[in-house]
TrEMBL record:
<feature type="binding site">
    <location>
        <begin position="187"/>
        <end position="190"/>
    </location>
    <ligand>
        <name>GTP</name>
    </ligand>
</feature>
<feature type="domain" description="Tr-type G">
    <location>
        <begin position="77"/>
        <end position="245"/>
    </location>
</feature>
<comment type="similarity">
    <text>Belongs to the TRAFAC class translation factor GTPase superfamily. Classic translation factor GTPase family. IF-2 subfamily.</text>
</comment>
<comment type="function">
    <text>One of the essential components for the initiation of protein synthesis. Protects formylmethionyl-tRNA from spontaneous hydrolysis and promotes its binding to the 30S ribosomal subunits. Also involved in the hydrolysis of GTP during the formation of the 70S ribosomal complex.</text>
</comment>
<feature type="binding site">
    <location>
        <begin position="86"/>
        <end position="93"/>
    </location>
    <ligand>
        <name>GTP</name>
    </ligand>
</feature>
<protein>
    <recommendedName>
        <fullName>Translation initiation factor IF-2</fullName>
    </recommendedName>
</protein>
<feature type="binding site">
    <location>
        <begin position="133"/>
        <end position="137"/>
    </location>
    <ligand>
        <name>GTP</name>
    </ligand>
</feature>
Length: 370
């Protein structure tokens, strides 16, 4: 049910909270400033104090912001978005670095200039593949819980000298729960004590049957250290993607998800955004969670300024007025007024949720921030 705190109600009417409390007292209700009242009571109070009430449901404010269906004729193929998961120290980051290194032609604009949470490479078969670096398992789950389905394929990294470990199992569970196909990368095969066959057998116990054991899950023996098997892995990813037949409409206004965001001293809020449909352009007005801004610059994974980014392309977005959060959905809106309406509404919701949580503790988060 819709609720509001007395403080927030007073704020929105530009009245003193104490006057709201007095009014309710006359009605026989005793309240503190942090108490939550229902929407009908709030409406009564507002009208008695001479305000016009306009009740806005979340569905109205957020209407049409996400998941507007793409029409068939505008769909075109898009690269797969791949997330690497696996147990601690099994070589996820090393693998991503090695894939990127072999892929970036030396001397290419910028080269590998910085660490970025997402990047795109070209497979030996010619197709593009987008990799996401950041999500730890917690982030993956959080994103999924917030409805942000960013991953098309999970690469499960298992170290050949260590085998299936607790977080390997966790990753399998996450991929299965999300209904995302999984490809196994048996890493560190260069090590003398590597035992890839043991990995295959252990995976069986978690109902992952790899191809060489008669199953359907693609598996690749790789080494982030020597580069062995990386091209095969990329080819496998492209083939898997072709089966998935991934499509998006590049012509609509952009939607996507914040992969990571930070406040940069020089550049202000910087959000790495994965564009999922449509095309994001400089000058666009974007909302992400409770923040909005006008896109001042788009920077690709090689550190170069670009004018636009289409489906499955990760870009750094400059121009947000505040720093959004990883997992926030991003959408382009038609005007600054609309951006303000949406983000102010979300900010209020966020405050109210915080207040409701803290209410019983006496002082609220809102009080403390004053
Ligand atoms: P977390 O992010 O901490 O979960 O670890 P990670 O999975 O990203 O592993 P990381 O890439 O940091 O690698 C862990 C260690 O394994 C490092 O010391 C790497 O150098 C080493 N390593 C990774 N891949 C290979 C490989 O293919 N062969 C060998 N010999 N060592 C590797
Ligand atoms: Mg790592």
């Amino acid at each position: 049910p819709e609720t509001i705190t007395i403080q927030e109600l007073a704020n929105r009417m530009s009245e003193r909270a104490v006057d709201v409390i007095k009014f309710l007292m006359k009605q026989g209700q005793m309240h503190k400033i942090t108490d939550v009242i229902d929407a009908d009571t709030a409406q009564l109070v507002a009208e008695e104090l001479g305000h016009t009430v306009k009740r806005v449901a979340e569905s109205d404010v957020e209407e049409g912001l996400f998941d507007t269906p793409d029409t068939d004729e505008n769909l075109s193929a898009r690269p797969p978005v791949v997330t690497i998961m696996g147990h601690v120290d099994h070589g996820k980051t090393s693998l991503l670095d090695a894939i990127r290194k072999t892929n970036v032609v030396s001397g290419e604009a910028g080269g590998i200039t910085q660490h970025i949470g997402a990047y795109q490479v070209t497979s030996p078969l010619g197709g593009k593949i987008t990799f996401i670096d950041t999500p730890g398992h917690a982030a993956f789950t959080a994103m999924r819980a917030r409805g942000a389905k960013v991953t098309d394929i999970v690469v499960l990294v298992v170290a050949a000298d260590d085998g299936v470990m607790p977080q390997t199992v966790e990753a399998i569970t996450h991929a299965q729960a999300a209904g995302v196909p999984l490809i196994v990368a048996i890493n560190k095969v260069d090590k003398p004590d590597a035992n890839p066959q043991r990995v295959r057998t252990e995976l069986l116990q978690h109902s992952i049957v790899v191809e060489s054991m008669g199953g359907e899950t693609l598996e690749f023996e790789v080494s982030a250290k020597t580069g062995q098997g990386l091209d095969d892995l990329l080819e496998g990813l492209q083939l898997q993607a072709e089966i998935l037949d991934l499509k998006a409409n590049p012509e609509r206004s952009a939607e996507g998800t914040v992969i990571e965001a930070k406040l940069d001293r020089g550049r202000g809020p910087v959000a790495t955004v994965l564009v999922q449909r449509g095309t994001l352009r400089t000058g666009d007005i974007v909302v992400a969670g409770a923040e909005w801004g006008r896109v001042r610059a788009l920077i690709n994974d090689l550190g170069a300024n670009v004018k636009e980014a289409g489906p499955s392309v990760p870009v750094e977005v400059l121009g947000f007025n505040g720093t959004p959060e990883a997992g926030d959905r991003v959408a382009v809106v038609e005007s600054e007024a609309r951006a303000r309406e949406i983000t102010e509404y979300r900010a209020r919701q966020k405050r109210e949720r915080a207040t409701a949580r803290m209410g019983s503790a006496g002082r609220t988060l809102v009080d403390m921030m004053r």
